[in-house]
Amino acid sequence: MEATKDMLIADLLDIDRGIAAILMGSGMHCVGCMAAAGESLEEACAVHGLDADEMIEKINEYLEKKA
Does the N terminus or the C terminus of the chain have fewer Cβ atoms within 10 A? Predict the structure, then answer.
């Protein structure tokens, strides 16, 4: 499965809990936050001043290596 930046943080974590380490390593400690249930990766990146395209690339590389 390929993740997209319009996916909710909660949905990304449902795909693979290891994605939390990627998010947290980039300063996004919101993985357990209530906002994660309704916030897309792109929205969360904007709030944290991160590039959503770079983040989704890291996530998809991680998922590809696990496949």
Answer: C
Whether 29 is in a domain gets the answer yes
Q: How many domains are there within the chain?
A: 1
Supply the range of the domain harboring residue 55. Answer: 9-61
Q: Where are the alpha helices (DSSP H) in the chain?
A: 9-15, 19-25, 41-48, 52-66
Query: Is the CB of residue 13 less than 8 Å from the CB of residue 40?
Result: no
Q: And the tokens for 2?
A: 């390929």
Strand partners, 8: 40
Question: Global pTM?
Answer: 0.90
Q: What is the mean pLDDT of the segment spanning 6-24?
A: 93
